[in-house]
Design the sequence.
């Protein structure tokens, strides 16, 4: 019975997390000038990072990010969305972060 409850809770958290993060990505995509449309994204269990951006532009988010404060969620999403423009951690990338998440 415990496994069933854990599975249902995990599934509920995944659906809820996907919905919440989808809304934040949509909202940020509207205000970030280099983002034409919300990119595809998926949630994964990640051991060492909060997110990543694939070379094809897919955003991968740690499914536990949804538990963080909104300010942290937005920073991670802005960071990953910035990789759509600069797929590195160059000075241009950090300038973009500073301009749109200045309090990071």
Sequence:
């Amino acid at each position: 019975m415990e496994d069933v409850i854990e599975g249902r809770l995990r599934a509920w958290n995944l659906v809820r997390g996907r919905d919440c993060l989808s809304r934040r990505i949509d909202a940020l995509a509207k205000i970030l000038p280099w983002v034409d449309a919300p990119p595809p994204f998926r949630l994964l269990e990640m051991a060492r990072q909060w997110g990543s951006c694939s070379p094809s532009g897919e955003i991968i988010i740690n499914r536990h990010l949804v538990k963080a404060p909104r300010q942290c969620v937005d920073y991670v999403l802005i960071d990953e969305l910035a990789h759509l423009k600069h797929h590195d951690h160059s000075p241009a990338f950090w300038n973009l972060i500073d301009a749109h998440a200045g309090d990071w």
The beta strands are 41-44, 51-53, 59-62. The two ends are 43 Å apart (CA to CA). The mean pLDDT is 92.
